[in-house]
Amino acid sequence: MFTQIGGILNAVGAETGPLPYPDCYTTSGACRYVPANGNTCGSGPGHWSYFYYPNASQWIYGRAQTWVMTDTSAKARNVGMNVGGRTDFRTDAYSNYRANGVDNNTAWYDGGYCHALLFRPDFDFQTWPTNPVAGY
């Protein structure tokens, strides 16, 4: 999956990397996605993922971004459509936005606050959690 959720960020000479990041900062073994067990995070490398917040407007094309899914389909996706309130966790990675389109340093996570909701490799996009977390 490729998205533009880094926003409009001019970081000359820097690579901002993927968003969200998996927790792979240990050197003990391979780092692979480790799904949560209910609302409890797993253990070891890959047991949680997180965002960094670039403090950049997410509105790249009007109020939209291009997202390319793993099945190679691509489309414009509206983001930040409810400024000052919560967004729809089924369509937007970030949970709140400021008036200028900059995310409010909060993103949607699964109920255990382990992984970014829309970017879990085991997510089927049909079985939605009843308790997503708007976390930092």
Explain this structure to me?
The chain is an all-beta fold and 136 residues long. The chain has one domain. It has strands spanning 21-22, 49-50, 64-68, 74-78, 107-109, 133-135. The strands form three sheets. It has a two-stranded antiparallel sheet. β3 and β4 (74-78) form a beta hairpin. It is globular, with a radius of gyration of 15 Å. It starts with 20 loop residues before the first strand and ends with a strand. 21% of the residues are buried. The mean pLDDT is 84.
Task: List strands and helices in order, with pairings.
Blueprint: E1 21-22, E2 49-50, E3 64-68, E4 74-78, E5 107-109, E6 133-135
Antiparallel strand pairs: 1-2, 3-4, 5-6
Please name the defining characteristics of this protein.
136 residues, mainly beta, two-stranded antiparallel ribbon, 6 strands, 15% strand
Radius of gyration, in angstroms, nearest whole number: 15 Å
Ends distance: 22 Å
Strand content: 5-15%
Global mean pLDDT: 84
Q: Per the principal axes of the C-alpha atoms, what is the gross shape?
A: globular
Main sheet record: 2 strands, antiparallel
- How many DSSP-defined strands? 6
Q: What is the H/E string?
A: EEEEEE
Class based on secondary structure composition and strand pairing: mainly beta
- Helix percent band: under 10%
Uncertain residue segments: none
Total individual domains = 1
Record the strand order, biggest sheet: 1-2
Q: Indicate the multimeric state.
A: single chain
